Amino acid sequence: MRRIPAALSVAALLAITTACSSLTPPGKETTAQARLTDLRPVRDGGTVTIGLKSDPDMLDPSLTTTLVARTVFTSMCEQLYDVDQDNKFVPQLAASMPKITDGGRTFTFTVRKDATFSDGARLDARAVKTSLDRHLHLRGSGRASEIDSVEKVTAIGPYTVRLSLSHPDVPLLGRLANTAGLIMSPKALKTYGRKFATHPSCVGPFRYVRRVVGDRIELAKDPLYYDADKVHLDHVVYKTITDGNIRMANIRSGDVQIGDQMGPVEVRSSMGEKDLQLLNTPSLGYMSLTLNVGNSHGIDKKPSPVDSPFGRDVRVREAFDLSLDRELINKLVFQGMYEPACGPVPPGTPLSTPLTCPERDVAKAERLLRAAGVKTPVPLELMINTTPDDSRLGQVVQAMAADAGFEVKLRPTEFATGLTRTLAGDFEARTGGWGGQPDPAGNIDRLIVEGRSTSDIAERREIYRRLTVAINKQHGVIYLYRNINYVSASQDVSGLKLSGDGLIRVKEAGYTKGSR
Question: In a 3-state reduction of DSSP, which class is residue 8?
């Protein structure tokens, strides 16, 4: 892969950004006025094309690891629970909120009686058990660690499911409102097994038609869907367009109607255009820079220290952290439209506590490197995505770190390749993030039994405050910023819904009456 050498200082980058910015940075009131939905009347029929920032990985709920795959799943694969626009959990394929008994060790819930998978199989308690057992036990499942508190799944009636837990797990509901709650057709699982991703079948407003990897995923309205009367579109196409400027150009031309994960540069360039609309919500997730400290042989192997200056000495990692200025990164890369982040818990949620991000301190960073006895400049290869935003972020990090005694080499890497390398431990550092969940247990890790075993809000808030402090002292994950979820769309599309998880819901979307 091509490497980008260090070339510009922080001062030069700031000067270029200031000179090239033709718009006054929007005030807080601009991004805070979140438009979550559009409820203008729509007509039946038509195809909507959604431009995606990256190509989804496999369309298998047990094996997927990407947010962009979840975006596609919102249209074709429903969950037991969902998140509404107030970030509250609501039943989706489940017919009720769970009844929690036995001191928090038993979850019991009922399942919808009117739902059918796209291949004609019926949704019932046994179908739910089949999917949850697969999430737990399939080799390579990304869901196993998310619901590892579940010891046994039992269909105790035709439409009643009981989860027996090894310990109380309050955040489990949030995970069942995420990828771990996606339910697959038992018929398709039996027929295709690990090749389910090539023939996915779930309950959803649209059914899978075909995929051209790297280009598009095509869905069609599913007549078997229990709520089909509310579905207006005939087809939905998810098209991979990694460059945000090109996604915006496609929206303007009419080739694409909705742009997912739009960046600040594209959003600002479109402000005031009468033919476009903007939906936005604060993100529940975070974006960070991860230093490889203990993933020597792959994520499926036992953790082992990485033999590098960063892996051997926390002082080197702290020095790197102190070389970065989060406020300036937000200004240089994102034109002030995001928020600096220094922890995994989203602010403004019940379990958040105020945090003060560390200020840039180059002098202290240099002292730490001298104390660690490392030769400077300390080399580091930073893997970044191939988008313009990631390129700008990488160059700013590169320039800032150079001031403190680091030599950062950028390795632009296509998204899917980067994901594979990350899981294999084949990286020194990488930029990336997490889409987020309303419950911060899903943002931090599944290690903290204490934090998920109590339902007392004050206790959990204090636990996660202490946990965040402990994580930050290790400087293995350097939290950088918290983005705003921006979705740009043509004005003649209505019925779009956007929640705090950043996922576009097009179930009730369609073209406005009189358009096209």
Answer: coil
Determine which helix (DSSP H) or strand (DSSP E) holds 394, and give its type and residue range: helix 388-404
3-state secondary structure of 511: strand
Name the residue among 54, 490, 53 with its Cα closest to residue 253. 490
Tokens of 47: 């195809």
- State the Cα–Cα distance between residues 314 and 295, nearest whole angstrom: 16
Query: Running DSSP on this structure, what letter comes out for residue 360?
Result: P
SS3 of the chain: helix, strand, coil, percent, to 5? 35, 25, 40
How far is 264 from 279, CA to CA, in rounded Å? 13
Q: What distance in Å separates the CA atoms of residue 232 and residue 510, rounded to the nearest whole number?
A: 6
Q: Under 8 Å CB-to-CB from 404, ≥6 apart: which residues?
A: 319, 320, 322, 323, 362, 365, 366, 369
Residue 253: phi and psi, rounded to 5, are -80, -15
Contact 425, 297 (CB under 8 A): yes
Q: What is the 3-state secondary structure (H, E, C) of 110-145?
A: EECCCCECCCCCECCHHHHHHHHHHHHHCCCCCCCC
Q: Per-residue pLDDT for the chain (516 aa), expressed as one digit of tens each? A: 444 444 456 665 555 444 444 433 443 333 333 455 566 889 999 999 999 999 999 999 999 988 899 999 999 999 999 988 777 899 999 999 999 999 999 999 999 999 999 999 999 999 999 999 999 999 999 999 999 999 999 999 999 999 999 999 888 998 999 999 999 999 999 999 999 999 999 999 999 999 999 999 999 999 999 999 999 999 999 999 999 999 999 999 999 999 999 988 899 888 889 999 999 988 878 899 999 998 888 887 888 889 999 999 999 999 999 999 999 999 999 988 898 998 888 777 777 777 888 899 999 999 999 999 999 999 999 999 988 889 999 999 999 999 999 999 999 998 888 888 988 899 999 998 776 665 655 555 543 555 455 567 787 778 878 888 888 899 999 999 988 889 999 999 999 998 878 889 999 999 998 776
| Tokens 């300036």 belong to residue | 328
Measured in degrees and rounded to the nearest 5, phi and psi for residue 202 equal -140, -170
Q: Pairing state of beta strands 406-412 and 378-384?
A: parallel
CA distance 176 to 183: 10
Distance of CA 446 to the CA centre of its chain: 17
As a whole number of Å, the CA-based R_g of the chain is 23
Report d(CA 494, CA 404) in Å as an integer. 50
Structure tokens at 87: 């970030």
Give pTM, 2 decimals: 0.78
Which has the closest alpha carbon to 330: 224, 484, 183? Answer: 484
